[in-house]
Each structure stands twice: as structure tokens, then as C-alpha cells.
Amino acid sequence: MKLKNPHAEALKIVVVEDNAALRSVMLETLQQGGHQATGVESTEEFLSLVDPGTLDVVIIDLNLPGKDGIFLAEHVRAGAPRMGIVMVTARVTLQDRVIGYGTGADLYLSKPIHPEELVAAVESLARRLRDTAPSGGEALQPLPGDLPPRLKEIGIMLINTGRAIKEIAEHLGIHEGTVRKHIERLYRSLGINSRAELSSRYRA
After folding, report:
1. Tens digits of per-residue pLDDT, 70-96?
2. How do 57-61 and 12-16 pair as beta strands?
3. For residue 26, what is the domain's CATH number?
4. Disulfide check for 125: which of 49, 78, 84, 174 has CB 3.0–4.6 Å away?
């Protein structure tokens, strides 16, 4: 299995996962992908040992003991607005995903995660954050808070992940036609006509 992308920049990554075996597998996967990855087992350990300003991406288990992943993601986002945040969890309900994105997470992955998907997702996120770094232009608006949860979730995925409709449908466990209808409703609600308009006007 080939994990290293010769064209990808080496990223500084911290994995926050309390399951030691899973943390070890994730670290080995990322290191084989050519990245500088270290791990901690809790929010408290991250806060005491890690300087967020030195990182490119942090991967957080949502269901951490003590202060959970939601607390940590909110803390990281407040102090390092340009850092990539990946939430990883076995939780699969719509409300959990919306909460995860609402903390400021850029990407949400459900366990179990295939090694190649983990590396590709982290590298894609880092590229997107680099390519969309602020250039002094007009600030993007947040998605309206009164959007229905499903529309907001799909809007966040369209903005943050760049996934195709088929991939969104597979991720959410619904039909592609249903995703298209949700996207049409989302665009009507926002008064836009395309994903390009969505990304140019709104942030998650």
C-alpha cells in the first residue's frame, strides 16, 4: 500500500486519541505518508504539551475522556484560526456531525478510517487551507444559523471538503437524488446558483 505522495508537503500533525492502539496506527499511517506526526491521549495533555501555533493539522477524537473533543476543537479554533481541524469519531448521527462542524472543525471522518483516506483527507485539507488563505479581500459570511440541520451539514461539506454529490451521498448514507434536492433547497435559501458562489460568499 503506497501512502506517501511525493508532491505533498510534509505536515506537522498531532493526533489526540485516547485509544492507544488506534493512536499508534494513525501515527504510523501519517508518518508513512511522509508527515511529522505525534500523539497525545487527552485534551489536557494537548493543552499542557502542544503549541498549536507550530502545527498544520490536529486530528481530534470527538469522544475524549475529561474535556472532550468539542471543547478542544473550540479552543484550537479560537487560538489558531488557520489550523486544520479533523474530527474523528464513531458517532454517526446527524446532530453529532453538525455539532462537530459547529466547533470549527474543517473535516469530519467516521471510524473506521482507511489509512489511504486519512492521509489523503489531511493533505487535501492542508492544500485547501493554504489555497484559501485570506488575501485582504472581503470577509466571508458564516452560513446562516437558522438553516435546517441537514442543509447546513451539506453546505459545510460543500465548502470544506469539496466532495462530489456521490461522495456526499455515500458519507451521509442517502441517495444522490436526495442530496441534489437538499443542495437545490440550500441554494434557494441562500439566493445563489452554484457551489462556486457558495464558496465565494460563505464559510462554514
Report:
1. 889 878 876 776 788 898 887 666 666
2. parallel
3. 3.40.50.2300
4. 84
